[in-house]
């Protein structure tokens, strides 16, 4: 009795390679062949790597643990992801092979599929990998704003200094490289004139953004203290509820008997003299 002998399933052999050893009766045909080929091609992409041999053969340091990255799926700014990745890999920033080998662990979805579709032996260092990554997802990058956009930021009447400084600082991060003096001048024109902080900037202009925000924080704390003290004064000057009810209670109305007693005294009427004739004779 002849038994069917299945080919050896080597885990390193891809489905495309295994098809070579299939018996003709086992070969997929027609529509199934096209579907099978697509699945095999996709699996081949997942098993391939763009790294050069020295990165593939590199062994991470003993005890190394892969950091918990915020995985990138291709929809956010690639520059931000590179900064996030390097920040978590700070202790190994000089180990180029390790930076390359761990990088796929920070990808997911279509970004991970893109990585496995890179040509073999196309990545020899982290610089090459970073340039390919940024070039692929450059359309998702946030474009820097011109410095002229800062001129549209004005301090509102009901806005505290702390809130405005935070809003202005976030806008500065979105601006392309520019002169620090220009940023400081725009900030000075954006705040309300006549305030203590404005006068401080006029007397001694800041030299750096760090100096500007440090002094702004100092005056923000002073502004908060003044606001808190003013609130306490308003609360202390407000009458309590019991006092307010006592003060607004209407006065007692005098009783009718008291009103008669307290009213002006009327003169007593003299006694009436009785009539000596009848009403018929008195009236015409």
UniProtKB/TrEMBL annotation:
The ranges of region (Disordered) come to 236-284
Q: Which InterPro entries match?
A: Retrotrans_gag_dom (IPR005162)
Superkingdom assignment: Eukaryota
Ranges annotated as biased composition (Basic and acidic residues): 243-265
Coiled coil ranges (UniProt) are none
Q: Where is the Retrotransposon gag domain?
A: 101-181
| Name of the protein this chain belongs to | Retrotransposon gag domain-containing protein
- Source organism phylogeny: Eukaryota, Viridiplantae, Streptophyta, Embryophyta, Tracheophyta
